[in-house]
């Protein structure tokens, strides 16, 4: 009897609670929904948001709120996720990400990334006054003396603060323990031999194996930086599950049977970063620079680097590399993209997780370039629904945040972009942004 009374009181409380749930903080009504899961678009859907989360998705009209956005003729997609970001000035960069609907980012180290800098970025991402994306990040780079990125990129790399220059495998146990005290998604490990000649040495296999082993012991993951098939093999041999670049990998499905077998067995996640290839070519294509200029979001100082002789020379070197590699005189961006997307498509269709990421840097711009990354995949023949999933749910999956983020489903954080045009017709319509919503709050965009 006592039990029945408790049950009765309990159901009464639930009834009261569901009455309150009619009150929503925000409703987007009658919209075309592309939810990020890869499911086809649904029409005439209404989305209800409360306390920063999506709490109702149905076609019944929810008009009991003052905050109603009429979604008629518009398209709703999840907030975008850039899975490979560096920032030397987050207060400058973060509003730009949000302006372009990028509501989550994954920072994979950098020469400023002390524990304090990471903490400041996380805190900035968690406040709702100034537009800023949610921040996920790795540890500081694990690399070695004279290797990438310390030798290849200038910057204030400080051993023990922004980078760990490992001298001996015996150091690794302690270092992994040290970095896992912080809220990292995993360890950033640089295996690669540098972005361009003269090559530096790769990290020895014994170091890589030990880092992965210690990471597993401490309940974390390794995010490895590889830039060719040899390095991908090294990472997979150590059991690494996350690769922060696809760029540089070239799979021949006839030749590389062992590598393919390893990929299908271990099912790693890859970040795409095709924008690196486009970024290298920017100074040779004034129309790209002008398109960015018309956005009125980026500093002229950054854009005028396209006239810098150093950057122009770098672009020309890059073109000659592609001429050799592709055995083609008149190399177009589409040629560079096609063979990579072709490989990615096969692996993607066989269940390998790909997440979009740009590797922000010169001519790879916060927010804007994630849309360019999507356009490169469309250029390579990938389906728009899949491209959107790679930029949303797949990224959240790589961050192990798929239960709370990455798609427009009940119970998830309300990060969404309302578009004026249909991105399934043309992926560049992801730039026809009407409203950006982060944690249920409408974000202020630049120059509004
Ligand atoms: Zn990077």
TrEMBL record:
The keyword Ribosomal protein does not apply. Pfam families: Amidohydro_1. Residues 75-440 form the Amidohydrolase-related domain. InterPro entries: Amidohydro-rel, Metal-dep_hydrolase_composite, Metal_Hydrolase, Metallo-dep_Hydrolase. GO terms for molecular function: hydrolase activity, acting on carbon-nitrogen (but not peptide) bonds. Keywords: Hydrolase. The keyword Nucleus does not apply. It comes from the Bacteria. This is Amidohydrolase family protein. The lineage of its organism: Bacteria, Pseudomonadati, Bacteroidota, Flavobacteriia, Flavobacteriales.
């Amino acid at each position: 009897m006592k039990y029945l009374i408790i049950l009765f009181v309990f159901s009464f409380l639930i009834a009261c609670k569901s009455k309150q749930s009619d009150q929503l903080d925000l409703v987007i009504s009658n919209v075309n929904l592309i939810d990020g899961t890869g499911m086809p678009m649904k029409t005439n859907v209404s989305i209800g948001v409360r306390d920063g989360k999506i709490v109702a998705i149905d076609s019944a009209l929810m008009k009991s709120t003052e905050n109603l956005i009429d979604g008629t003729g518009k398209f709703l997609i999840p907030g975008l996720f850039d899975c490979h970001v560096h920032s030397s000035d987050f207060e400058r960069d973060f509003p730009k990400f949000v302006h372009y609907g990028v509501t989550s980012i994954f920072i994979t180290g950098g020469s400023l990334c002390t524990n304090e800098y990471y903490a400041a970025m996380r805190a900035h991402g968690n406040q709702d006054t100034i537009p800023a994306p949610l921040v996920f990040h790795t540890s500081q780079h694990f690399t070695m003396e004279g290797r990438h990125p310390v030798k290849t990129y200038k910057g204030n790399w400080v051993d023990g603060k922004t980078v760990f220059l490992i001298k001996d495998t015996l150091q690794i146990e302690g270092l992994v323990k040290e970095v896992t005290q912080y809220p990292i998604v995993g360890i950033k490990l640089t295996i690669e031999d540098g972005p361009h000649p003269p090559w530096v040495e790769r990290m020895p296999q014994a170091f890589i194996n030990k880092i992965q082993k210690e990471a597993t012991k401490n309940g974390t993951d390794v995010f490895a930086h590889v830039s060719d098939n040899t390095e991908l093999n090294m990472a997979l041999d150590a059991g690494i599950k996350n690769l922060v670049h696809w760029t540089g990998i070239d799979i021949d499905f006839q030749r590389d049977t062992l590598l393919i077998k390893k990929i299908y067995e271990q099912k790693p996640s890859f970040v795409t970063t095709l924008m690196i290839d486009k970024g290298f070519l920017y100074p040779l294509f004034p129309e790209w620079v002008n398109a960015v200029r018309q956005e009125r979001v980026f500093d002229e100082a950054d854009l005028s680097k396209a006239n810098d002789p150093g950057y122009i020379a770098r672009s020309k070197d890059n073109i000659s590399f592609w001429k050799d590699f592709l055995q083609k005189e008149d190399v177009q961006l589409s040629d560079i993209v096609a063979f990579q997307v072709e490989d990615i498509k096969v692996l993607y269709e066989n269940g390998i997780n790909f997440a979009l990421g740009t590797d922000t840097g010169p001519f790879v711009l916060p927010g804007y370039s994630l849309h360019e990354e999507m356009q490169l995949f469309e250029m390579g023949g990938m389906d728009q629904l899949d491209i959107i999933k790679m930029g949303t749910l797949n990224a959240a999956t790589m961050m192990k945040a798929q239960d709370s983020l990455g798609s427009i489903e009940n119970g998830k954080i309300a990060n969404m972009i309302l578009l004026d045009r249909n991105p399934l017709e043309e992926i560049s319509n992801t730039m026809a942004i009407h409203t950006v919503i982060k944690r249920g709050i409408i974000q202020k965009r630049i120059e509004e």
